[in-house]
Amino acid sequence: RPRVLSGIQPTADSFHFGNYLGALRQWVALQEEHEPFFFIADMHAITVEQDPRQLRERCLRAAAQLIAMGVDPERSAIFVQSQVPAHAQLAWVLQCLTGFGEARRMTQFKDKSSKNGEGAASVGLFTYPILQAADILLYRPAFVPVGEDQRQHLELTRDLAQRFNHRYKKTFRLPEPYILKATAKILDLQDPHAKMSKSASSPGGIIEMLDDPKLSAKKIRSAVTDSGSDVRFDEEEKPGISNLLTIYSALTDRPVSELEEAYAGRGYGDFKKELGEVVVEFVTPFRDRTLELLEDRATLDEVLRSGAKRAAEVAERTLADVYDRVGFVPAP
Ligand code: AQP
């Protein structure tokens, strides 16, 4: 079975709808016919300052949420990045293959460092995409399910893999991004030109999966839309309504065209109210299950322990090949 690999940062108490619809939902679907490795990216998280206790707690919350949304720990290795040291070890080798100018072109660093100025950003934030390349290449996956914002990083990953293969010997598989067009970029409910994001969105712009479901329904009802009344998918003229249609369609598996027909002539009020109900119905069991799992720390620890063991077996084999090819003296 081809492998899939993806990760998510434990930088909030809850995942949001962008994470879920852009990436995590595909994790669940892909585990059917692939060999999946899914990790909680705590090393990426510390590229900006984190409270240590909170970081540890959020890793467990992330694991609980992944299981609650349907990632099956029997089929998928769910693990914490820092527990598999090969990630950091391969990252160093890849850093030595990356041009400074090449790293500089990463737009996410530009976006994330623009607020406080580049000088205040950590070097880790700058080299983050290279660690991400290591995360991926260690597992030689065929696919990496992510949102659109990760496309550039995936391209860098492929470039580095190719460079290594060419300079030394074919070692890495070139991974394909797995990006579902319809949900590749879920937008901020209050600013439907920006992506829904845990660091940039205002509280009203982001739907957190573990929020009180009633609050989420309210956020949908207050979402910014245009001054018209037609429920129609048009990303240029109606970005807010189009974003809500995308969310509605993804949660119910009903095509956008069917929703447009169902709401023809009924106005935005009805549409938002009913989408709010869909959201409540979707998040309520997810939230209950997550909270239940969080009561059972021993099971979560065991899932992460066995996930890290499975991941390390694969990762260490790749790293051994890399060290050999680079010319490192074998460890005693
Ligand atoms: N708005 C989004 N639409 C579609 N996909 C999204 N993803 C994130 N936001 C959207 C996808 O979620 C996965 C995990 O993301 P991450 O934890 O690595 O962090 P991120 O991409 O940095 O998420 P945020 O919310 O945007 O955090 P900040 O604000 O800190 O940058 C990824 O596959 C991502 O594509």
Summarize the structure.
The protein has helices at residues 17-30, 42-45, 52-68, 86-95, 100-104, 107-114, 123-137, 151-167, 213-221, 239-252, 256-262, 267-294, 297-326; strands spanning 3-8, 35-40, 77-80, 143-145, 176-178.
Keywords:
single chain; 332 residues; mainly alpha; three-stranded parallel beta sheet; 13 helices; globular; binds adenosine-5'-tetraphosphate
Number of helices: 13
Number of strands: 5
Q: Could you say which overall geometry the principal axes of the C-alpha atoms support?
A: globular
- Briefly note the structural class of the backbone: mainly alpha
Bound molecules: adenosine-5'-tetraphosphate
Sequence of secondary-structure elements: EHEHHEHHHHEHEHHHHH
C-alpha-based Rg, rounded:
21 Å
| Oligomeric organization of the protein chains | single chain
Q: How far apart are the termini? A: 34 Å
Q: What's the helical proportion of residues?
A: 40-55%
Low-pLDDT runs: none
Strand content: 5-15%
Main sheet summary? 3 strands, parallel
Order of strands across the main sheet: 1-2-3
Average pLDDT across residues? Answer: 96
